[in-house]
Amino acid sequence: METKDFLALIHPAIAVIVVFPVIGNVVNMAWKTWQRRLQIKNQGKSKIALVVGQEHLQSGKILAGSVVSLTLIGLGYPIFEHIVSNKVWDKNAFQVIFIILMFIATCASLIFLYRAKPALWRGMFATLTGTGLVILGCQDGVFRRTNEWYWSHYYIGITSALLMVFSVAIIQDIYKDRSNRWRTIHVILNSIALLLFIGQGITGTRDLLEIPLSWQKPYIYSCDFNNKTCPTLPPPSSPAGS
Fold first, then answer.
1. Rg for the chain, CA atoms, rounded
2. DSSP letters along 132-193, please?
3. What is the pLDDT of residues 187-225, one digit of tens each?
4. What pLDDT, on a 0 to 100 scale, did the predictor assign at position 17?
5. Beta bridge partners of 229
6. pLDDT cut 90: percent of the chain above it
7. Strand, coil or helix: what is 221?
8. 97 burial via Cβ count (<10 Å: 0-12, 13-18, 19+)
9. First to last CA, the chain
10. 51-85 vs 93-115: helix axis angle to the nearest 10?
């Protein structure tokens, strides 16, 4: 494996080591929080500690930030690999500068989203973060599998990240809303996000199997993917003196 191949493993490695364990913890805390509310509603008390709700909140914030950060890493590698491989800086320096500024702006918007209190600012920074993700995802080098968008690691990942951004933006509204409307929206959207995370695990594993090492690409990409055939290689030459 060459250096660029190891760099390509950063995104899936962080997903396995960091993000998916956090997902498990968040789901566990969410289940306990729900069980506690049901027990209090039906029995007037619960053996589940009150702190479970706060732990769920903190874990959820960590998960949302991790997912968006992981998405940026996943977009960053193919974008900059394309820039370097195709010498885009020599052809269009403005495009490279724009992409770098978009990464910085998206990261800054995410940080400000976590710090914002008024609904207007939360909505603005959430919109800027989501817009940045979408714009970066449209750059050259990103493999989108648009013809199979419903089974695309990219589209599922972007949707998951946008749901996480929205979840962070409405946290304060959940606790202020006595009608539980925002809480219901939160539960529904994050249940969908959980299904998308499962899809990410499946499609990510598939893509790792499909992406060849850098030194294998010339031959692999010469194959006919529709007919599932590859050009026949010449037989290896015999060692000298054999």
1. 22
2. HHHHHHTSTT----GGGGGG-HHHHHHHHHHHHHHHHHTHHHHHH-TT-HHHHHHHHHHHHH
3. 999 999 999 999 999 999 998 888 888 888 888 888 888
4. 95
5. 224
6. 67
7. coil
8. exposed
9. 31
10. 180
Q: Which two tokens stand for residue 207?
A: 């893509």
Q: When comparing pLDDT for 211 and 22, which is higher? A: 22
Among 194, 92, 76, smallest CA distance to 136 is for 76
Half-sphere exposure of 148 (CA within 13 A, CB side): 6
The model's pTM is 0.89
Task: Name the amino acid, one letter, at 230.
Answer: C
d(CA 242, CA 238): 7
Give the confidence band of 239 by pLDDT, cuts at 50, 70, 90.
Answer: low
Please state the length of the chain.
Answer: 242
Q: What is the DSSP letter of 149?
A: G
Q: Where are the domains of the chain?
A: 3-220
